[in-house]
Structure formats: structure tokens, C-alpha cells
């Protein structure tokens, strides 16, 4: 399968690893939008949030367990942060492997652009 994030998990495409376990992989975004910008992905290929089901959602719950740990480790938990999932064309998704952006280290505006 020609999936950039599967290639990152397999090591075919280099990345700066932030966290890894049996279920998930996290790495620094190549084009950071904040002082800290981590991408968290399930090791299982799930194309988008539209493909999350009762059968495969454990990795999503796990990602949300790891996020506060990383935020504390990286030093921005107390000030706050944002977790973003872009889904589909209107959502601005550019890589079709489910991923969550964890951004911190600055204040973010609302509503999203
Ligand atoms: P999205 O637009 O939500 O699909 O997010 C895809 C993200 O992947 C963007 O923030 C890109 O900067 C990031 N990205 C693309 N290629 C790479 C790469 N080789 N290594 C790290 N991050 C990447
Ligand atoms: Zn993939």
C-alpha cells in the first residue's frame, strides 16, 4: 500500500520518533505549526476518522491516553494544547492514514480556519 505514514512506521521514510509502543507511533511533524507539533498514528492502517469502528477504536483511545503524557513530558500540559484530526477533503486531510496532531507551546485561535 502506498501510504506515507505506513512507510514512516516501517522505517522506509525517516521520521523523528517521539513515542512508540505496540499500538501507536508518534513523530514530529515535518512542517510544524507550533513550537511543538507531534503527529500520533495507529500502527494499523485506518484511512480516516470515518473508518473508526468498535473493532479498531482501541488504538484511538490509546492515543488519547498517551497525549497527556507527552504533553507533560514536552512541558506544555499546564499551559494547554490542541489535538486536531482533519478528516476528508473539507477537513483538510492530506495523508490518508488516521492521525492526530498534538500542538502546543503557543496560544491558538478559534474558530479554526
Ligand atoms: P493532515 O493535513 O491533517 O493530513 O496532516 C498531515 C501532516 O503530515 C501535515 O501536518 C504534514 O506536515 C505532515 N507530514 C507530511 N509528510 C511528513 C513527513 N515525511 N514527516 C513528518 N510529517 C509529515
Ligand atoms: Zn497507512
UniProtKB/TrEMBL annotation:
Coiled coil: none annotated. The active site is at 99 (tele-amp-histidine intermediate). Residues 4-113 form the HIT domain. A motif (Histidine triad motif) lies at residues 97-101. Signal peptide: none annotated. GO terms for molecular function: catalytic activity. It comes from the Bacteria. This is Histidine triad nucleotide-binding protein. It comes from Candidatus Avimonoglobus intestinipullorum.
Amino acid at each position: 500500500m502506498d501510504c506515507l505514514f505506513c512507510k514512516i512506521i516501517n522505517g522506509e521514510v525517516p521520521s523523528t520518533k517521539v513515542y512508540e509502543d505496540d499500538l501507536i507511533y508518534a513523530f514530529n511533524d515535518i512542517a510544524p505549526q507550533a513550537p511543538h507539533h507531534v503527529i500520533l498514528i495507529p500502527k494499523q492502517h485506518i484511512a480516516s476518522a470515518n473508518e473508526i469502528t468498535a473493532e479498531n477504536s482501541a488504538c484511538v483511545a490509546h492515543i488519547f491516553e498517551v497525549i497527556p503524557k507527552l504533553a507533560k513530558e514536552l512541558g506544555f500540559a499546564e499551559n494547554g494544547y490542541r489535538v486536531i484530526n482533519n478528516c476528508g477533503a473539507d477537513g483538510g486531510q492530506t495523508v490518508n492514514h488516521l492521525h492526530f496532531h498534538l500542538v502546543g507551546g503557543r496560544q491558538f485561535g478559534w474558530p479554526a480556519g
